[in-house]
Structures are given as C-alpha cells and as structure tokens.
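Researcher: Following up on the earlier apo prediction. This time include the ligand. It's zinc ion, with the SMILES given after the sequence.
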Amino acid sequence: MPLLSTDAVVLHSFDYSESSRILRLATRDAGAQSVLARGARRASKKFGSALGLFSQGVAHLYLKSGRDLQTMSAFDCTHARTAIGGDLERFTGAAALAELMLLFSTDESNEDLYMTLVHALDAIEAAPPDLARATSLAGAWRIVAELGFAPALDVCGTCQTLFPVGQPLQFVPEGGGVLCARCARAYPSGRPIPASVCATIAAWLLAEEAPVLDLREARAHQRLLREFVHSHLADGRALRAFEVWEHGDWNAT
Ligand SMILES: [Zn+2]
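Model: Understood. Below is the ligand-bound prediction.
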C-alpha cells in the first residue's frame, strides 16, 4: 500500500473501539477521506493530543483503492484551531462549512477547494465573535463556488439576460440563483430579495469588503444559503449543522 503524506483538516471525528478514532478529513492531495486512526484515543507520539475538529496538519495515509475506510498511521498537527472551539458562533459556522465539504467533496484531489476551506477556517478563527457569522457565510459561499455551483447573481440563472436596474429579483435555489421575473414564474419556490443581498454575496465571492450585517440580515442570508445548498443535494438530506447554526440561540439563558 502506498504511503501518502498530505496536508489535511479534520472535519468530523468519532470514537471507535476503546482506543481508536474514525475521522473524516479534507486533504490537499486526496480529496475527502475517511480514515481509521488506531490508538488515537490514547496519548501517543503518532497523533499527539491533536485530532480535534478543524485541526490542520500532515496526515500520513495508507490508501487502498476501492476501500471506504483508509488507514492513517500518524498526524502531525501544525494548527489546532482551538479558538474555533472556544466560541459557539465560530464553532457552529465552521461546523456548517465542514458539513458542506462532507456532503459534496469527493476523493478527487482538489487543491483550490482545500485551500478555500483552509482560508475560510483561518478567517473564522480570526473573526471577532460578532463577525463570525458573516465570515462563515462568506467562506461557505466561496466553498459553494469552488464545488462548481456558484449562484447566478447579476444575470438570470436560466435565460442569462442582464437584469435591468430596479427590476425585482427572485432568488430560486432550484434555478441556480437569481432569475428574471419571467423565468421565475416556473418556480413557485422563488423568494423576492433586495439587490443588496446579491451585492453582498457577490462581494463575499470576490473576497471584497462586504457590508456589516445585523443578526436579522445574517439569519436571512443563512436561510438563503441553506435553501440553495439543499436544492443541490440529490437525496434531499437534512442539513443538520446548517440548522443548528441558523436556529441555535446560544445566548439564551
Ligand atoms: Zn430569465
């Protein structure tokens, strides 16, 4: 079995047997991988005390084609990202990004997608708690774009016509984004949105400075993103991390 050493981020982790863990990784060189880390529940040199969610490092993998669960012999953590776990706004946003990666990425190598994830997690870790939600939204839309289904924002997603200024916009997840009024009639699920919402998403996609959102605006953006992502899932699965991120009122006492 060939040994592959690749940069990787831990997206999901659970205990397996008394001593091992199973992890889902985003890797730079081998896409998404499920791996068994034998002995990782015990303190060891091979895995250290790392392997926390969102931690980043070099994963040493034995890959065998056709196998769903690969073997990870060691993980050299370079960045534990403990600041994400220490704040619920950051944590729930990062968990939604992880869910997005787990649902859509494959074991094909995609360095651009991997780096987009890494930069998004770095930005969430560095964001003040009151900006963590918007920072997570920006990262999620960039991952959506890298996955190949960026939303139509300035031309109709169906007929490709440019929107005349002042025309009401309809956001239609199944239609690939914003549609003109004529095309939107075919989709009862369309939702009218202000042009400023499109401008904000476009700024996030271009990594430009976006307006500061209040909580109500941020939640409206989260709903739009969730509906858009959900419409691209073939099997209609629930987006559990997205729902916790959107509805969890962590400040309630
Ligand atoms: Zn149209």
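Model: The mean pLDDT is 90.
Researcher: Noted. I'll compare it with the apo version next.
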